[in-house]
Write a structure and sequence with these properties.
- The complex is a heterodimer.
- Chain A is α/β, with parallel strands linked by helices.
- In chain A, 49% of the residues lie in helices and 10% in strands.
- Chain A is built from 26 helices and 16 strands.
- In chain A, α11 crosses α13, α11 packs across α16 and α19 crosses α20.
- About 1% of the residues of chain A have low confidence.
- Chain B has five helices and eight strands.
- In chain B, a hairpin with a 2-residue loop joins β2 and β3.
- The termini of chain B are close together.
- The chains are: A alpha/beta, B alpha+beta.
Chain lengths: 644, 146
């Protein structure tokens, strides 16, 4: 049994875990203990449940069966299992993207303004400039009326999902050389849904038995997420809800307030939570909250829904993935409103230990016996109000004696996008990536790192994220973050400009001070990893750092990953030429030496990117820095200016 | 002294005990490393399937061990205090007589190392690794039933 200090480095999490223990409430950490030791066949990826002749297992010690009933060996079985995870991860992000594109279509039809009078609260177009940029990418005449542009764009975006041939429009953002690599390998993403379906088809019994070919199809599917579904989700959310700009806020369980009605939004999609933000400021509801003895309504977020409302409205973040149960354990949450993805089934039971009402909102994600208030776009604001009202009415049920909110909260700055980086570095009137490229070329900046992903109870919560990122910025690597990784670093105070002075190397410090940015930039939720791809494409376009994404002195990392989405993100980064390190535990492929060797080596010949699996954050940093330095040498750049 | 017992009604045949056994007897004692060792560790217990039931099988450490009698090199001895059949690798000649005479088929030959594979109740550990590895509690570690 691990100690509380081994479970998390975050004091707020530790305090909540102590309370959980006192009250004998089981959390993910306890459930991991009761699962241990976990199935060896599963961990190695050599259990096949594809057909009813199985389940079959390959003996990892070489003595027993080396083939399933159908003859599939460890390579085929492990590759198929991994491919199915890629398909699920891509589906999650892309289905999110579809819903956003669909919202745009409904805005175009004017549905959100029909019915009983006009809903001034419902959706519109908040970033007209970005609408036009996207319209141009889709060859839509931007001189047309805004209504017409929205209509045509939404149709074209939705068509990307059912597209059968050609290439996804946003994938044309990638540099020419990268697209040639995709073409040569025949992994150009054609249609978002098609790539998922085709990948699943290849994993059916008796279809693709060549592990390299399975991974190739997997890469194409992942690209249809990164340069398709996720990119649509990010960019169209910016159009509808407004593009983020740098914003200050607070993070950690301490943002929950004792005398307020606490409403926590959790999950991944911002379309409804956007309305929750507005409803939480509704004078009528605030008045109602006060009439119940509360000082007001306090909205906070968990996971990527948190990141979305943080980026656009500065709504505070209560915590990352592993803190979802702990937020309820504070005893101070009236409503936890969830949408999709990364919502632990355990929340139902944890909520039942307190007065907290868990409310599901998506027809795709329901919990048995849990209040379901379904979100529809035409009734968005009404639904949000209804849920918040539920929270207000629940305030009087709070048992004050059981409230224990950890004090910890930390300042952060979020709201960086590929467009904002332009403006911050170049200035609003001469927006350009030139200063960034020049900083890398001169060696003031060693390079860039994308550090993203989840939490995983198998590792000390937040430790891998923060130890890795601290080491990277110390060595003058500018870190771009999304998801629960960004929240982890925010809690440690790495997302404030002042962090540069304390943690960053001299070169990065100079840049941060000159333009007033933190050394770690929060780019948003996990679909917003697509912002990193777009930004990298701009860097190549700006010139001086090679012709392909793989030429940039940069590396990616998911230090505490756990979800299938993380696997897909890893694959679209690698297939885009990025050296990507995974922590926590390796993909479940170790039972196949051939496949594992391909992922961590052979792939590089095909796509100029590869995976690395590592279980030590400082070693991860060394690996990433070694790769960045290798890329600097390949570009004939001088070593980092302040080489330590 | 404690012995291994099995509740065959609970055994689902997942072979987790086999994997845990092989890992426990590897050099590294870690799954991800054990499968890469030069001399692969092999499990000392096997799950057999017969008439719709699964039977985890490992050395019963019989009080009247046929294998000890059959061992021509005197590599096998019965330790009354520990209640265990002990195997002295230095003496073993790999004749497989112990494999032949075991009434349970619980001793297996490792053809690579020329040594028989026999449960040693994970002698260095608090309890045999298969006990914790069993997700259904079919492997039971308890005082001997007289």
């Amino acid at each position: 049994m691990s100690s509380i200090e081994q479970k998390s480095i975050d004091p707020a999490t530790q305090e909540a875990l102590r309370k959980a223990k006192e009250e004998n409430i089981k959390t993910a950490w306890d459930r991991l203990e009761s699962q241990e030791p976990q199935c060896g066949f599963g961990q190695l990826g050599v259990c096949c449940t594809v057909c009813a002749m199985g389940p079959c297992r390959i003996d990892p010690f070489g003595e027993g069966a080396q083939a399933g009933v159908c003859g599939a060996d460890a390579d085929t079985i492990a590759a198929r299992n991994l491919a199915r995870k890629i398909a699920v991860g891509a589906s999650a992000h892309s289905d999110h993207g579809r819903d956003v594109a669909h919202t745009l279509a409904i805005i175009a039809e004017g549905h959100s303004h029909s019915g009983k009078g006009s809903h001034s609260h419902d959706y519109g177009i908040l970033d007209v400039e970005k609408l036009k940029v996207l319209a141009q990418e889709y060859d839509i005449d931007t001189n047309k009326s805004q209504e017409q542009i929205v209509k045509e764009l939404s149709q074209k975006l939705l068509a990307e999902f059912g597209r059968q041939e050609g290439e996804l429009t946003f994938s044309k953002r990638a540099p020419k050389k990268r697209r040639e690599i995709w073409k040569k390998l025949d992994i150009v993403p054609r249609g978002i849904d098609r790539e998922v379906v085709e990948l699943l088809h290849t994993t059916h019994m008796g279809v693709d038995n060549d592990y390299k070919n399975i991974i190739k199809t997997g890469m194409r599917c992942a690209l249809s997420d990164g340069w398709g579904g996720s990119m649509i989700a990010t960019d169209v959310q910016d159009v509808i809800l407004g593009s983020p700009v740098p914003v200050r806020s607070k993070v950690n369980l301490g943002v929950l307030k004792e005398n307020y009605v606490n409403i926590v939004v959790h999950g991944h999609e911002p379309i409804l939570s956007e309305m929750a933000v507005k409803a939480s400021q509704d004078p009528e509801l605030v008045k109602l909250a006060k009439s119940k003895g509360a000082q007001g309504i306090n909205l906070a977020g968990i996971c990527c829904t948190a990141n979305e409302v943080l980026m656009r409205h500065g709504i505070p973040v209560a915590g990352n993935f592993l803190q979802q149960e702990l937020a309820i354990i504070t005893g101070a949450v009236e409503v936890m409103m969830v949408d999709v993805q990364c919502i632990m089934p355990a929340l139902r039971e944890i909520a039942s230990c307190f007065h907290t009402k868990l409310v599901t909102t998506s027809p795709k994600a329901r919990f048995p016996g849990v209040t379901h208030i379904e979100f529809t776009i035409d009734k968005a604001y009404e639904v949000a109000k209804q849920i918040i009202q539920l929270g207000i009415e629940n305030f009087s049920n709070r048992n004050k004696g059981r409230v224990n909110i950890p004090k910890q909260e930390m300042d952060l700055v979020a709201g960086f996008t590929k467009e904002i980086i332009f403006q911050i570095l170049g200035g609003r009137y001469r927006a350009t990536y030139k200063p960034l490229n020049e900083a890398i070329i001169s060696g003031r900046l060693r390079g860039l790192a994308g550090v993203v992903g989840c939490n995983n109870v198998k590792q000390t919560h937040d430790y891998f994220h923060t130890a890795l990122v601290k080491e990277l910025i110390k060595r003058d690597v500018l870190v771009l973050q999304t998801g629960c990784s960004a929240i982890a670093c925010a809690k440690q105070g790495l997302l404030i400009p002042e962090a540069a002075k304390e943690y960053a190397g001299k070169g990065l410090q100079e840049i941060c001070e000159a333009v007033g940015i933190p050394p770690v930039l929060h780019l948003g939720s996990c679909v917003d990893n697509s912002r990193i791809l777009s930004a990298a494409s701009y860097i190549i376009k700006e010139g001086g750092l090679g012709e392909d994404l793989s030429d940039i002195p940069a590396a990616g990392c998911a230090p505490e990953w756990m979800s299938e989405k993380a696997i897909t993100i890893g694959f679209y980064f690698v297939a885009s030429g990025v050296y990507t390190v995974f922590g926590a535990q390796p993909f479940a492929t170790l039972g196949s030496k051939n496949l594992t060797d391909y992922l961590t080596g052979g792939m590089e010949k095909d796509v100029a990117g590869r995976f690395e699996f590592c279980d030590d954050p400082l070693k991860m940093a060394q690996l990433m820095i070694a790769h960045i330095d290798k890329k600097r040498r390949a570009l004939n750049l001088k070593p980092a200016m302040y080489e330590s | 002294m404690k012995q291994l017992y099995y509740d065959v009604k609970k055994c689902l045949g997942c072979k987790s005990c086999e994997v845990a056994c092989a890992v426990a007897h590897s050099l590294s004692d870690e799954l991800f490393k054990a499968i890469k060792e030069e001399k692969l560790s092999l499990p000392r217990k096997k799950v057999f399937f017969s008439k719709a039931k699964n039977y985890p099988v490992s050395c019963r450490h019989c009080k009247d061990p046929k294998c000890v009698d059959a061992c021509m090199a005197a590599a096998l001895t019965y330790d009354k205090e520990k209640g265990m059949v002990l195997h002295d690798e230095a003496r073993c000649v790999g004749c497989w007589m112990c494999v032949m005479v075991c009434p349970y088929g619980a001793v297996r030959p490792n053809l690579k190392t020329k040594m028989p594979l026999r449960c040693d109740k994970c002698k260095d550990k608090k309890e045999p690794s298969c006990v914790k590895a069993c997700p259904t509690g079919a492997v039971i570690w308890q005082e001997e039933v007289k």
